[in-house]
Design the sequence.
């Protein structure tokens, strides 16, 4: 009986690594799109966790083929960074709009509005009296 001495690599973590990489590809595509990119953080977080778990499973199980896992880690990390960027841009824009709205509210001449309303009410009252 002849023994096969060929070294075979373990397949530990391969499925999770593939899933993490595929999720990373989808997450990075979402993260590039403005506004939608802010919502891609949750998908990238799931992909990052899967890729990290797969990487450590492969490392502990003797799997030397960890390229997909590393690709998943990198893609998901970049997608998270882009999502954080979009969240920051949206929040800063909203804060700017809120500040401008507050300034506009301060500049409203309430006395002139009150006088216009009183004149309109008085004019309406005069027209119904005839």
Sequence:
């Amino acid at each position: 009986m002849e023994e096969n001495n060929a070294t075979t690599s373990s397949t530990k973590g391969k499925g999770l690594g593939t899933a993490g990489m595929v999720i990373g590809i989808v997450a990075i595509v979402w993260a590039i799109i403005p506004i939608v990119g802010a919502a891609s953080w949750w998908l990238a977080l799931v992909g990052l966790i899967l890729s990290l778990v797969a990487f450590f499973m492969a490392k502990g199980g003797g799997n030397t083929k960890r390229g997909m896992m590393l690709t998943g880690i990198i893609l998901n990390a970049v997608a998270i960074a882009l999502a954080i960027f979009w969240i920051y841009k949206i929040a800063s824009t909203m804060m700017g709009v809120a500040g401008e709205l507050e300034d506009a509210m301060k500049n409203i001449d309430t006395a002139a509005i009150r006088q216009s309303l009183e004149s309109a009410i008085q004019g309406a009252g005069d027209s119904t009296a005839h």
Observations:
- The chain has one domain: 14-129.
- The chain is about 75% helix and 0% strand.
- The helical segments are 14-32, 41-61, 67-106, 110-129.
